[in-house]
Write a structure and sequence with these properties.
- The chain has about 350 residues and is α+β, with helices and mostly antiparallel strands.
- The chain folds into two domains: about 50-190, 3-Layer(bba) Sandwich (YerB-like fold); about 210-340, YerB-like fold (3-Layer(bba) Sandwich).
- The chain has five helices and 23 strands.
- It has helices at about 1-40, 120-125, 140-145, 180-190, 335-340, and strands at about 45-50, 55, 65-70, 85-90, 95-105, 130-135, 150-155, 165, 175, 210, 215-220, 225-235, 240, 260, 260-265, 270, 280, 285-290, 295-305, 305-310, 315, 325-330, 340.
- The strands form five sheets. Strands 3, 4, 5, 6, 7, 10, 15, 18, 19, 20, 21 and 22 form a twelve-stranded mixed sheet that branches. It has a five-stranded antiparallel sheet with strand order 14-13-12-11-23. Strands 1-2 form a two-stranded antiparallel ribbon.
- A hairpin with a 2-residue loop joins strand 18 (about 285-290) and strand 19 (about 295-305).
- The longest helix is centred in the N-terminal third of the chain and has 37 residues, at about 1-40.
- The termini are far apart.
- InterPro entries: DUF3048_C, DUF3048_N, YerB-like_sf.
């Protein structure tokens, strides 16, 4: 009897020890699993950029900046176009287009050559409540900016300080500014650089329907200087812009400007003075094409709170996530005569 009691007690003690050992062995493993699940990855993006739809590592609550960039042949290649979320391309005087590059998700070190303001560009910048940066202005743009219609920095008043002249080019093709100096200028003038920028509409992953568009010719007016070309790169799944002779690239890195969306729209153009300055109607709406993923869709454009957006069947046509370029061409030749699509 004593022998049986001893055996029972031994088995009970042994069972308890095994249970204690199992519990003690399991507890550290559970703690490690909880720690690994809660620990955020350093590469995990914090937010999504409102004008590209792409994830960004930094906070996206900063203000958009719109910079006028020279497109004279003597100003090419330009600096900072690669980092722009969105670029408007319109005619200024004569047969040469001018860019307004809008920055929100990236801050390029060098931007330029910076060129003078026009009233329709100022109007377009207001759709993003952007800080407007130029070097010079037309009479009407001067009137708008001096009236405070947009916060602005002008190289006329900061030449040699915020704006620097490049020695390898001649004026007016050699004025540059850094993003750091844009922020300095904003602070000096008391402009806030914080803003909740309303997001554009973006489509989730999926196919795009329309006409195959491997090569597209765009005439702002019917001259060689005002004609630009886009070709679709199958490997990159993006469009490459060129002037017919050279691809548009970044001056510093030599990287090509790769575009996910190209919106081509027509608007009324009118020459209003003996300097060849134009009035461009950016509010009326009208016909257009949207290029995405090697496909062209016929769309209607509308001005919605200062933003020029594509519509189809009465509904907004969302952009592919990424970079966008908007070409505004004259109604003469217009979309029908000024855009050639090749499959």
């Amino acid at each position: 009897m004593k022998y049986l009691l001893f055996i029972s007690l031994a088995m009970l003690v042994l069972s308890g020890c095994q249970k204690d050992e199992r519990v003690q062995g399991e507890q550290p493993q559970e703690v490690v699993e909880e720690f690994e699940a809660d620990e955020p990855s350093e590469e995990q993006p914090k937010e999504v950029a409102p004008l590209t739809g792409l994830p960004v590592q930094t906070e996206s609550n900063h203000r958009a900046v719109a910079v006028m960039i020279n497109n004279d042949p003597k100003a090419r290649p330009q600096s900072g176009l690669k980092e722009a979320d969105l670029v408007y391309e319109l005619l200024a005087e004569g047969s040469i287009t001018r860019f307004m590059a809008i920055y929100q998700s990236e801050k390029p070190k060098r931007i330029g050559p910076v060129r003078s303001a026009r009233d329709y560009y100022v109007e377009l910048s207001k759709g993003y409540d952007a800080l407007y940066v130029s070097h010079g202005w037309s009479p009407k743009a001067k009137e708008m900016l001096e009236a405070g219609e947009a916060d602005s920095l002008n190289g006329l008043f900061y030449d040699g300080t915020l704006f620097k002249r490049s020695k390898d080019r001649k004026a007016p093709h050699n004025s540059y500014i850094t993003y750091e100096n844009i922020e300095k200028g904003a602070e000096e003038k008391g402009y806030s650089m914080k803003d909740h920028v309303k997001s554009l509409s973006f489509v989730e992953e999926g196919s795009v329907s329309g006409e195959k568009a491997s090569r597209v010719t765009v005439k702002h007016i019917d001259t060689a200087l005002a004609t630009v070309y886009y070709r679709y790169d199958q490997k990159e799944e993006k469009y490459i812009r060129s002037d017919g002779k050279k691809d548009t690239m970044d001056a510093e890195s030599k990287d090509l400007i790769l575009l996910d969306n190209v919106l081509i729209i027509e608007a009324e153009h009118e020459i209003i003075d003996n300097q060849g300055r134009r009035e461009i109607n950016v509010t009326s709406g009208g016909k257009g094409y949207l290029l995405q993923k090697g496909v062209a869709q016929e769309v209607e454009w509308k001005n919605r709170n200062g933003r020029l957006l594509p519509y189809k069947d009465g509904k907004i046509q969302p952009f592919i996530k990424g970079k966008t370029w908007i070409n505004i061409i004259s109604t003469s030749p217009g979309i029908d005569g000024g855009v050639l699509i090749e499959s």
